[in-house]
C-alpha cells in the first residue's frame, strides 16, 4: 500500500511533504533539520513509517508507534528552540488483516522564528526550499527575525485549557496585595489570560499551581567572599515552580540569610537590613517580569556575596541598548518583554503600570553613601541589578578585583592583566579604565592597550549611546 491510498489530501508533487521509514537514532540532525526547516518556511507534513521517494507504507504496530512518537517528542523538546507548534496523529490502516499505523506530523509556519536546531551545543538554522532542507541564508535569517520581532512568548497560545481551580496560588497572592479583593474571571479574560476557546496563554500557564517546568527556574547562591571564581560556595539552591512561588522562594532565600545591623546613616543610627525589603521585592519582581522566557536552559540567578546581592535575569533589556554599569536607575526606560505577565503583576499591585519600579529602590537607598549605591548593567543575554549590603561598612569598592590567568596577549603590555581583571565583572569606559590604571586616557592607551586586547579577542567592546564599554571575554581567561 502507498501513502496516497490513505491520505485524501496528499499532494505528491508538493515540496511540503517528507517521509521517513523510521527515525534514525544515529543521525538525529538529519531529520530534525526537516522539522526546523518546515517551521522556518511555510510549514509542511512529516510522515514516519513511510518509505522515502516511493511513499510505500512500512507502518508500525500500536506499541511501536507510541515509542516512535515519544522518541520524536523527546528529541524535538531537547534540540529545537523554540519548540514548533505541531499536531501529531496516528493514521490507521490494515495490511493483510492486521492493524498498522503511520505517524503524521503537521508543522505550521512558526509564529516565532527562526526555530534553532541546537545539537551538541552547536546552533544551526535551516530553511525548507523546493523540496530540500538546507542551511538558512543570512538574508533569510534577518527576514525571519524581522517578521517575528513583535511576538512575545507569554501571549502565544499554550496547549492547555483554563480551569479556575488551577490558579489558587495566584488568587491568594492577588488578595494579599489588594486588601482581600477577589481576582475575577472578567479581569483575567480582559488581560488575555485565556482566549474565547478557553485556551491559556503561555504566560498564564506559568502561574498554574502545578507548574513545575524550567521556564521559571531560579538559582539562589551564597558565596563566602566577593566573587564567584575564587570564593567558596556556601549554599546553592535551585527551584522550579509557578511564578508566584518563584517570587516567594527568592524573597525567603535572601531574607533568611541576610545580615542585620545597627549602623550610622548621616546623623542618626538605626537598625537596618542588609537589603531593604521593598528594594529586594522590586528587584525580584523586575527580574520575573522582564525575563526572556524564550531562552531555555537559563534561570534567574540570585547571588549573595559578602558585600552585595546580585539579581540577574535572562535576556537583555527588551529592545533596549546594552548598559554598562549605571547608577541612574530612574533614567532607565525598558519596554515590556512580557505583556501578559506584567499585566498580571500590575493587577496584583506589585508592579508599576508604567516604568520599572527602580524609583522605589532609589528611595530605599537614599540615605546611603557613594559606596552603597545600587546599580544595574546589561548585556545581550542578561541584565543584573546589584544591591549593596547596607551592613557591610566598606560598601562595594573597586578593590574587589579578581585574579586571572591567561595566555599572553600578542603585542601585549604590562597593563593587560589589570585591564582584564578590572573589566571582568563589570564593563567600563576607556576613561574609567585609564583612571584605574593611573595613566592618561591617551591615543596610545586606547590603541596599543585597549584596541590590541579587542583585536585579539580578550576584550569585548559594546557601544552604548556615544560611549564604548569594555568587558573581558570570559572564554579567554581563567578565573583563579
TrEMBL record:
CDD domains: HTH_ARSR. InterPro entries: ArsR-like_HTH, RecG_C_sf, Schlafen_AlbA_2_dom, Schlafen_AlbA_2_dom_sf. Residues 13-131 form the Schlafen AlbA-2 domain. PANTHER family: GLPR-RELATED TRANSCRIPTIONAL REPRESSOR, SCHLAFEN ALBA-2 DOMAIN-CONTAINING PROTEIN. This is Divergent AAA domain protein.
